[in-house]
């Protein structure tokens, strides 16, 4: 079976996908469950064969260029006995050779752990890792909104730079894999957390064909915990070391989040946002004189800043056992790096990372969300606390995981990242959603409050809808299911089925006088693009409103209309598609629903009697960038960023404006008497 497997598709190398499939298959065959025990089979020969065919060679690849052979460094993991936290034996922990070196171990060498060797080379050379750090806040029952996020590609390493010695010395950390963020203070400078918010950290692994994906680390830490760590000055004894890294006189504290099920860590540096309140000193005045800082640092054996293990350098309890790089950069006892948490006790604060479910836990609030007016009162109180709190920068410095926790064996299951996708897919600076592409630089309006009441679709009855929302205030209804319609409105599907269908484009201004006929394919090719700041709304064309109900009936019939009805009103559907930054300025009309199918859209609303100040021919983007920031708090609109699976209801004659945060597919259900 293995010898005949194809690893080429239309000239494209699929060696890595085939290797992942075989790794999963071999792992399953390595154990057999029988009654009350598990049989473990020795599969080293087959692992060695896999290594020779896919890591060292390309036995089955017929592509012009084999992507599996792109790295010149080959890593080997020696076979060793393992006893709890300590590695026993006398062989070096890792060996690394040039691909063409003749000094490499022989095939099936019994001194090599071939299973770990295959997996380590796969992790280091053939998989992509992305870390996402996001600030989130709870906006409603079972809803966690991402306020801002930062996604970075990170690179796995079985070593880390030692901070307790001069130069660029590296220490081997395998079987721990490190994902360090170089220049973390610049990279995550926009991650600012306030009262009522939490910082979520997620690490996602994906194969380079983008067909397999899994979440390897996901946890969160609340503002209250970060503030407590910062105020406690838990790492103030490190003030002398902090000055070696930054001279902006800001104090930094460090906290480590223990990962899911106790596996791995994510470390965060916490600092007060510059210019917000009075800054406390980096450290208390010390009685110790430091005539020679480097000598003092060496004597204590401490590493600076975000290094995980801060115990002194020395032999572990197992004697002279040491891990070393083949180049002889230096040795460091393996035992010292695996002394559980004893070596960091009393130095770095450590917390158990909360899960996303923990952040959504209702507690005593669960019964109050259904009380009329509670949602708006809760949002008002939260915004007041946010405004009065001390904002903190939260810088992610690194994530570390045991190699087996990188989900190499579980990439057969596609598990989308909660933050990484956030209902869209991040791919190398590009955001994709159903094939509707938006460059990262064009995304707008992701940050901001959500102060509109929200309600679970499964719990909102017709009676409650009429009583609370139908005639009085807007509401966002989440957990709306329109998966079939989402599938039918993917870009490739729509081009194939509706490319030549006739459409009418409208101008994106308040009164929408302009009408331009087109075909769907022509609109995508010629008009669907991000909003130009120099272009007025009455000069911007996009698809919404005037579609031929007869021609588009097969598509519209698939859509599940909102089940809540307004007595004496009939529904009429209007399908739309628009580029990032487009939208309609403030206007009003009768009641209706609007749902996001792909992408995201920010809504702004005012009651009829509170007419907003706007130019009807300007674009929403111009208003959002130029006028919105100047509004006093009491003039701010109700607003929220809507995403797929959410529908907003707006009552009769409510002023509203829309801003497509990215390329978006949407549909409205207008209710007419």
Notes on the protein architecture:
This is JmjC domain-containing protein. It holds the Pfam family DUF2045. It comes from Mesorhabditis belari. There is one protein chain. The longest helix is centred in the N-terminal third of the chain and has 15 residues, at 15-29. The protein is built from 17 helices and 37 strands. Helix 1 packs antiparallel against helix 2. 20% of the residues lie in helices and 30% in strands. The strands form 11 sheets. Strands 26-27-35-32-37-31-30-28-29 form a 9-stranded mixed sheet, covered by helices on one side. Strands 13, 14, 17, 18, 21 and 22 form a 6-stranded mixed sheet that branches. With 673 residues, it is α+β, with helices and mostly antiparallel strands. The chain has 3 domains: 8-119, no CATH class; 127-283 and 303-308 and 344-422, no CATH class; 444-672, Sandwich (Jelly Rolls), CATH 2.60.120.650. Mean pLDDT is 74; it is low at 1-10, 163-167, 236-244, 281-346 and 420-432. The termini are far apart.
């Amino acid at each position: 079976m293995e010898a005949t497997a194809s690893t080429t598709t239309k000239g494209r190398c699929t060696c890595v996908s085939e290797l992942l499939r075989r790794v999963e298959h071999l792992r399953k065959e390595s154990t057999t469950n029988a009654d009350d025990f598990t049989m473990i089979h020795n599969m080293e020969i087959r692992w060695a064969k896999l290594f020779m065919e896919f890591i060292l060679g390309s036995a089955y690849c017929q592509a012009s260029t084999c992507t599996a052979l792109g790295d010149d460094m080959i890593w080997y993991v020696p076979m060793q006995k393992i006893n709890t936290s300590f590695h026993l034996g006398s062989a070096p922990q890792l060996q690394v050779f040039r691909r063409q070196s003749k000094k490499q171990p022989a095939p099936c060498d019994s001194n090599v752990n071939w299973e770990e060797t295959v997996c380590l080379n796969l992790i280091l050379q053939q998989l992509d890792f992305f870390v996402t750090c996001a600030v989130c806040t709870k906006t409603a029952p079972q809803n966690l909104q991402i306020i801002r996020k930062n996604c970075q590609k990170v690179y796995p390493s079985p070593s880390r730079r030692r901070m307790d010695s001069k130069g660029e010395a590296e220490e081997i950390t395998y079987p721990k894999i490190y994902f360090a963020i170089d220049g973390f203070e610049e990279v995550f400078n926009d991650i600012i957390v306030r009262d009522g918010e939490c910082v979520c950290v997620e690490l996602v692994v994906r194969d380079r064909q983008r067909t397999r994906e899994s979440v390897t680390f996901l946890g969160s830490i609340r503002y209250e915990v970060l503030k407590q760590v910062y105020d406690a000055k838990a790492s103030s004894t490190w003030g002398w070391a902090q000055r070696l890294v930054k001279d902006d006189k800001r104090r930094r504290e460090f906290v480590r989040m223990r990962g899911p099920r106790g596996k791995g860590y994510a470390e965060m540096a916490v600092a007060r946002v510059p210019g917000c309140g009075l800054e406390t000193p980096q450290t208390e005045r010390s009685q110790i004189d430091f005539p020679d800082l480097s000598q003092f640092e060496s004597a204590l054996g401490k590493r600076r800043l975000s290094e995980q293990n801060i115990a002194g350098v020395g032999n572990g309890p197992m004697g002279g056992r040491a891990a070393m790089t083949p180049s002889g950069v230096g040795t460091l006892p393996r035992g010292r790096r695996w002394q559980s948490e004893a070596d960091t006790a009393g130095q770095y604060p450590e917390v158990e990372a909360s899960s996303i479910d923990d952040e959504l836990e209702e507690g005593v609030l669960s019964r109050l969300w259904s009380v009329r007016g509670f949602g708006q009162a809760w949002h008002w109180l939260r915004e007041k606390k946010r405004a009065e709190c001390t904002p903190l920068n939260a810088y992610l410095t690194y994530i570390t995981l045991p190699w087996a926790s990188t989900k190499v064996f579980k990439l057969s299951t596609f598990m989308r990242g909660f933050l990484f996708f956030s209902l869209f897919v991040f791919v190398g600076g590009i955001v994709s959603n159903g094939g509707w592409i938006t460059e990262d630089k064009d995304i707008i309006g992701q940050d901001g409050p959500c102060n509109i009441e929200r309600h679970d679709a499964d719990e909102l009855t017709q009676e409650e809808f009429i009583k609370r929302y139908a005639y009085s205030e807007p509401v966002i209804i989440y957990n709306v299911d329109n998966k079939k319609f989402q599938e039918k409105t993917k870009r490739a599907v729509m081009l194939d089925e509706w490319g030549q269908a006739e459409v009418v484009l409208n101008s994106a201004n308040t009164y929408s006088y302009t009408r331009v006929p087109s075909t769907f394919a022509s609109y995508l090719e010629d008009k669907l693009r991000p909003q130009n700041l120099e272009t007025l709304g009455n000069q911007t064309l996009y698809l919404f409103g005037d579609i031929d109900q007869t021609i588009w009936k097969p598509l519209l019939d698939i859509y599940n209309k909102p089940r809540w009805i307004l007595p004496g009103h009939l529904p009429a559907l209007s399908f739309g598609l628009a580029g990032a930054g487009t939208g309609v300025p403030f206007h009003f009309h009768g009641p209706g629903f609007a749902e996001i199918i792909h992408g995201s859209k920010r809504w702004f609303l005012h009651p009829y009697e509170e007419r907003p100040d706007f130019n009807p021919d300007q674009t929403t983007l111009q208003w959002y960038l130029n006028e919105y920031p100047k509004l006093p708090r009491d003039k701010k609109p109700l607003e929220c960023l809507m995403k797929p699976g959410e529908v907003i209801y707006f009552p009769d004659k409510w002023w509203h404006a829309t801003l497509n945060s990215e390329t978006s597919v949407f549909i409205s259900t207008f209710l007419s008497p």
